[in-house]
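[Automated response] Your request has been received and processed.

Submitted sequence:
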Amino acid sequence: MRFEPPALGFVALWLAGIGWNVTSFDVKHERELEERPLILSLPRPEVVKFGSLGFAAALADLYWIGASHYFGEPRFKPVNYFQLHEYFDIVNELAPDFHEPYYYGGAAIPWNTGKEWVNVEAAVAVLRRGAARFPNDWRLIFLLASDLGTSQGDCLAGGRLLPGAAEAPHSPAHLLELSARYLAMGGALEQADALTDTMIETAPDENTKEVMKKHKEELAVERDIRSLEAAVESYRNSHGGTGPSSADLKDFEVLLPRPFDQLRDPHGDRYKYDAVTSTFSSLTLDRFRPFGVKKTP
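Generated structure:
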């Protein structure tokens, strides 16, 4: 009896179906997968490069695929994918001109546990290498500035990186604004002020100019509240760690450059004082700081 090709195809599909069913219900195999170690033994990047024997590009592709598999494996989630950067370190070493791993590594390596961001330092290392290799890629610089400013609290470093990214081809217009916010958050208020003036002068339309002028007002609020916060800290140091109550504001005034009643925001409104939290705020304007960053470094 001779099998025709269609019959052979049916038999092959039937055998494949049996094999799939067997592996699908192989509980022992599933348990073995779950019990595999969560810590992998990956070689150092320089060791892989030394042993590549002329096949560095091919090995870079293999580790690039390996990074995708690692990040897509749910069993590594409990350890926050903490070894993901090791794959990208190897890929960067083997193929330093391979562009995409810098970007995707920088974006994927930081992991939010629900309480905090982890693996950020490893992501910063990948992004620094990428930004040095591809200085005209604004995306790499933007991710690096965001990690430094928002995740690591180094707003000054993040703010100083972004003007360079803003000059790169096809970069979005908001990078200079974000730079000014980071600079203000990092305490470089004069630099932030000068950058905001530049954005007002070079605004492409009246609507953008009005938005920048509002940011200039918010920057003035930031400067005033910074001076008030510094005065509160001095008051605490001389009063056993206790902030001034509403009734103590007269005594508190001696620490200010001018009387509290004379301090006004750009709209002419007095600053509001919360005696419970010892904080100040403007009734009509927000403070000039990056979105998502609340605490002053």
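Summary generated for your ticket: Residues 206-238 form the longest helix (33 residues). The chain has a mean pLDDT of 85.
If you did not submit this request, please reply to this message.
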